[in-house]
## 1
Amino acid sequence: MNPEAQAAFERMVAKMPLEKRVQYLSQIEQIEKDFKEDGVQFDHTDSAHAIVISNEEATAVDRDTVGGVPYVCDKWPVPKCKICGQAMALNLQFDIRECFNVPFAEGSHFLAFSCFAHHGDLDNNLFKDNTKQLPLNFWDARKNHEFYLLPPGSSYRRGAEDTFFRPRLLYFYEFTEFVYTLRSLENALAAESPERKVGGTPSWWNTNYSELLCPCGGRMKLLFQIRDDWDFHIHGEREFVALPFLNTKHEITIVLGCERQCDPRAMIAVHDFMDEYDDEEV
């Protein structure tokens, strides 16, 4: 576990009553033993934050939302789809906290947009699996989705309210995930965690992009990871609608960003899948 994650884990454990703390640490030890018995190599624990979409409606002052009012700036307004020219929908936005233990400046503001009129692939098609460094200005190749990681203090302007998603507040809670390797899948790295998380350890089931470099030379580090569909409220719909994140169906979507934050668009979404994995064999 990296020092920041270790410190966060220790803070979380220290807040527990003594009896609960002993029980919790005992459970971790038992999970490690269970992993070994099931042919899984326990690697480490890590601290991360689960992303929760609440039923509470977001207002114009909220910055952690699905839909709602995007917080952007004059240089980086709400993007338009390069296929149809329409303003993209705001999938989500949130502020970066110190407690997230991610290598991005506290106070930065992340936004993910996509065009729900046009399906498209994620950013894996921008480079080959064995690529060590992304091409210059790789973000310009995106057509139907966009990311911004705006520096602290720069997300000062309210854009037009999103008209696709019904605005909902996002919440985050800290948890400990158990990271393990699967030798049957050539040492695939995986983490037992909620379906949506910020920080922690990315799950690399097939292709490991942990050594991927930004054109500036900085490493592309994990911001958040999503598994399966999100359940969203759409304007005009009474019930929840299951939609894929960024309007692209993939089992696992991992969003990485340049640790140097050389450009607000120096983010990339890569997909992975688990269909080679059989729970009964592990």
## 2
Amino acid sequence: MLLAIAPSMHKVFTLFSTVLLSFPFLWAGKATAGPHGEYIELGKLAGCCGGTASYEEGGRVGHLCGGNLDLRCRHNSACYCINGVNIYGQHPVSGGPDQLKISGLDWRRVIAPLLSPPVIPPLRCVCIDPGHGGSDPGSQMQRHGLVEKQLTLDVARRLRTLLEAKNIRVVLTREEDNFIALANRPSIANRSGCDLLLSIHFNAADGSGAEGVETYILPSQGTASTARLQNLSAKDREFFPNNRHDGKNLHLGYCLQRELGTLQLSKDRGLRRGRFLILENANCAAALVECGFLTGASEGQRIGNPQHRQAIAQALCRGICVYGNCR
């Protein structure tokens, strides 16, 4: 597991990530100009960190093993598989067959920080936000009788019970089926002095083919949402209160997505970035989870089963506890 490493090895992996973060010095003479700044070829990167690189599928899929890192990447994709969890970077992998190149920005802001996560003080209070509510039903799937606002509240209540059993105080942004303005939701977490904010949602799509779980964190300043990648807007250049917690957000998002990915038959759609209002103004680590597609042919039926929603709550509880070193 990437984020739970033995104390005796922590110095090794911290040094490994420090080396990776020293991008300009380490890669001098090895990096090349790419479509979005400096890039380095996978094999040269492996040589820098004492790892190995290999290729599959005609050289279009690269595999790097080094230290406590197992990374897979695909040509022209911004999605990396890091120790079995899909995580979206900012720039697609470039280069030709057997010579894939990775963006320096993605190394510094996405991959290397995961090898040396920040020290998280014991969690005292967690804010759970059941998405939607009242006049805002969220997504609906009439065939299965599913309404997102009801399901998010159900999972939030289940998660509260699990966290309280671990002596963690829990605040819900709504206790009943009532409407809470988006701008007021992070304020509830901020006023309560919470250490973590988690917003719970379910997804929907046209048709019944889309399935899987996603986790979102706020993009760092100067980077775009996953849906837009390199197309920066004026808002992307702003610094929001939650950007003070970029490192914690990445750690939290990884832990949550890793555990959600263990749900039965759930597809790992990856840790992503999105400029959601509830994330922007949170004064603590924050993430938004999409716990499956109500519109999915089989996933919608699973979500309608209380046992599956209990499994979702348990996965979220595990992710939070791994993040906060809770027992």
## 3
Amino acid sequence: MSAMDQVIKIVNFRALPQSEQLHHKLVSANYNVFSQPLFEHKNNTDESSIKQLLLSSKAKKVVFVSRAAVEFAHQAYALTLWQASPQMIFIAVGQGTKLALQQCGISEVLTPAQENSEGLLALSELNNVANQDIIIVRGDNGRELLAQQLTKRRASVHYLSSYQKVWYNINCVDLIANWYDPLTKNSAIICLVITSVALLEKALSLLLQCQAEHIVKKHYYWLVVSQRIALKAQQLNLAKIIVAQGANDKAILMALETLKLKH
């Protein structure tokens, strides 16, 4: 079978509800797509912890790095109550996160044009931050680059882990049966959608349980949503890396167009 005859199959590993939203967008764009979230989000904070952090840090800037970070923080302590000071600045990593904040009653939200940590760091509001306290609302890990760079700018950075990732116990053989035919072996061009370093490492580890390393690392395409994840993918010796300009559905669809042009 020639490359021109091959089907491009998208494997969507995003967590719900983003996984479902992306799936529908991909189907509408006539992509062959299989969606399997590798983890779910669970609450990791409470009202008392948030109140204590807001009081002790006296932060005037709060950065939310995902919709889940917003939603779980709001469930624990309504975001409109965070605004004890009218100078509180809410910052979202992207448009999806901004919409989540607005749905929780926060009307004024700053968002970078480039929807990732690098874009956040380019915001003027996060440049002259010496001696300022900044809260980063995230999951149980991630955004170390953002925290490191803000610290270098002499800000005091505080993490609020509003949720945690709970990884599913997924059988590798059952998983790859959704796109890999052991008889034809190379019957489709596989592109995996990866939105974080943690998801990259988990997906790679899972696939290597039942597939040859050269297939996973040399034949699969890995679509990542930032240069930071791309760098990690390179360090893991992945050969085919596509970088989207953000984690939103539009950016992912635009990145997939480059793959279509190659085939």
## 4
Amino acid sequence: MKSFKYIPFGLMLVLLLGACGGTADTTAEQTPQDAAYTAAAQTLEVELALALTQNAQQTLEAENESLSQMVETQAAQLTEQANQPPVQAVEDEDSADTPEPTLATEPQINVVAETQCRQSSSVSASVLEDLTPGQKLTPLGRSPDNLWWAVAAPSDPDRQCWVAWNENIELQGIVFELPTVAPPTTPTNTPWPTPEGGVAFSYSHKGTCGGAEYGFFEITNLNDFAFESMSIRVRDITADYSVGSADSNNPFLPNGNGCAGGNSTLPAYGRAFIAVPFGKTQQDNRNRAIITLCSENGQRGNCVSAATIFKP
């Protein structure tokens, strides 16, 4: 079944009249009947144009009215939001009483291993106090080379003593803003004269004692007095970590093959070996060992230090 599209009668009449008018000779004189048709067609054309114009105007006005209503609605919503009171943040009662965490800025030195506070910035200076883990020291200044710290003596805060900066202490706060302090050039109340001979100190080899790895060092006493105690620290200076340490009152081995049964005394001008338990070592890394030998037990009396650089 064929379908037909609907064409308004008025529009069809206009098209027909236009077609008739198009084929007519415009120069020929129209009959009264043709003139009537022409006038009717022109009238219909004008009415159709007016109708289309009115429809377009009504559509535009409707769209403008819808847009205006939308703008007015949004404006009313924004005004309502602006007039609402601000939302107050609810503060947690517990958090109100909790103080803000603060970083520790007050300078302090924490003792993490047994060490000594001496009369000056030297291992040959007299020991004024023994320090134990857990003690907290008040630093007063630092040596010009930043290797020693002047602190208030724990037993007498009005008195000053010196503690070496090593793995036995831990720095806290703005300690490096403290002034430099010149230590006493010649320690007073020293029971022994400052040694002149010193000690020859060198790395020997690695060995195993009871399944654990040890480093062996050779020492020679170049002084005219004996040593009774020893402290040694070994550090990998390439990777910057501690390799091992030892403190003993009988560390002096007669040769580099033993592991235990050390002698308690290294006589004047005597020679011995020291064994130090080693942790992780790396063959090509440079290590530094610092040894302190003292004429009395417990790192007291007249003390001499020496250092050596080696590769294990």
